TrEMBL record:
<dbReference type="InterPro" id="IPR000232">
    <property type="entry name" value="HSF_DNA-bd"/>
</dbReference>
<keyword id="KW-0175">Coiled coil</keyword>
<dbReference type="GO" id="GO:0003700">
    <property type="term" value="F:DNA-binding transcription factor activity"/>
</dbReference>
<keyword id="KW-0238">DNA-binding</keyword>
<dbReference type="Pfam" id="PF00447">
    <property type="entry name" value="HSF_DNA-bind"/>
</dbReference>
<protein>
    <recommendedName>
        <fullName>HSF-type DNA-binding domain-containing protein</fullName>
    </recommendedName>
</protein>
<feature type="compositionally biased region" description="Low complexity">
    <location>
        <begin position="1"/>
        <end position="17"/>
    </location>
</feature>
<feature type="domain" description="HSF-type DNA-binding">
    <location>
        <begin position="23"/>
        <end position="118"/>
    </location>
</feature>
<feature type="coiled-coil region">
    <location>
        <begin position="129"/>
        <end position="191"/>
    </location>
</feature>
<dbReference type="GO" id="GO:0043565">
    <property type="term" value="F:sequence-specific DNA binding"/>
</dbReference>
<comment type="similarity">
    <text>Belongs to the HSF family.</text>
</comment>
<feature type="compositionally biased region" description="Basic and acidic residues">
    <location>
        <begin position="307"/>
        <end position="319"/>
    </location>
</feature>
<feature type="region of interest" description="Disordered">
    <location>
        <begin position="296"/>
        <end position="319"/>
    </location>
</feature>
<feature type="region of interest" description="Disordered">
    <location>
        <begin position="1"/>
        <end position="22"/>
    </location>
</feature>
């Protein structure tokens, strides 16, 4: 039974070796076959992680396993083969030895093609050196260009920050000037409104006084001249009508001259301000002219009211 089992294992190892012949060295194929044989794990086998194998009994390995798989009992020769393929030797514990390779792993038979002899790896490394040097030079060049771009971005950002600070300062200055000009405009508006209010009050007072004087004059004439004819009354009314508008027109003309002088002074004062304030001053002047027109319209309405009263008085006299 033992002999038949050994024959089956021999045939299995040979078939495995034949499958990978030409791509993987036979030593590695046979070594992997040993690792997959669960009956040998007490002598040699994978560690718990499966990334290395442990030699647990050197004597049995040399006496039973090496002759079967490698046709010799020389354990040092087995070690030299492992070293030739860059297996790293270390201690698994105080007694047993551990061997590992980055491409020699449990269930990783396909990775065996990556394992090469030491001199072959050195030649491959030598072939790769020029390529690595070229890659390093390209990396340095790219790094230098990137550094220059970063410096250019930093300089541009610094300039933008300076420009932003200047704009913020200009905006602050303009805001302060705008507040000052707004306050000046508000004060001027208040003064003009007060001025127009005073003119309106004066005009109203004068019109009322003229009306009172007219009524008093009519009463005095009726008392002093009781026998006056209708034609004479009509002539007197017409004369009063002609005199009163003349007085009112003189007052309105004087008021308009005062307003025109004030508007001229207003323009002279505004011309000393900054150009940014000219548009606002023009609007203020236009507003003032509109107020003047309203003032004149109000005066016209009062004149019309006065005429209506005169007509009423005239009708009473004629009656």
């Amino acid at each position: 039974m033992q002999e038949s089992s050994d024959n089956f294992q021999d045939s299995q190892s040979q078939s495995s070796e034949q499958r990978q012949k030409g791509s993987v060295p036979s030593f590695l194929v046979r070594l992997f076959d040993i690792m997959e044989n669960e009956d040998l794990k007490e002598i040699i086998g994978w560690n718990t992680e499966g990334n290395a194998f442990i030699v647990r009994n050197q004597q049995l390995l040399a006496d039973k396993i090496l002759p079967k798989y490698f046709k010799h009992k020389n354990y040092p020769s087995f070690l030299r083969q492992l070293n030739m393929y860059n297996f790293k030797k270390s201690k698994a514990d105080d007694v047993n030895q551990k061997f590992e390779h980055k491409w020699f792993r449990r269930d990783g038979r396909a990775l065996l093609t990556n394992i090469k002899r030491r001199n072959q790896e050195e030649n491959d490394d030598k072939d790769e050196i020029p390529q690595i040097v070229d890659e390093i030079e390209q990396f340095k060049k790219a790094q230098k260009e990137l550094k220059n771009e970063i410096q250019a971005i930093a300089d541009s950002q610094k300039q933008l920050q300076i420009a932003l600070q200047q704009i913020m300062q200009q905006n602050e200055t303009l805001f302060q000037e705008s507040q000052q000009l707004t306050q000046e405009l508000s004060n001027m508006q208040s003064k003009n409104q007060q001025r127009f209010a005073n003119y309106s009050n004066i005009l109203t007072e004068i019109v009322q006084r003229l009306q009172q004087e007219q009524e008093e004059e009519l009463r005095n004439r009726d008392i002093n001249q009781p026998q006056i004819t209708g034609e004479q009354k009509k002539a007197n009314v017409i004369q009063i009508k002609q005199e009163q508008p003349s007085q009112q027109q003189q007052f309105l003309s004087q008021s308009q001259n005062n307003l025109s002088a004030n508007s001229l002074q207003f323009l002279m004062n505004m011309s000393a301000n900054k150009n940014a304030f000219n548009f606002q001053m023009f609007s203020q002047l236009k507003h003032q002219q509109m107020n003047m027109q309203m003032f004149q319209n109000g005066s016209t309405q009062q004149q019309q009211q006065s005429d209506v009263k005169k007509n009423e008085i005239k009708k009473e006299n004629e009656q």
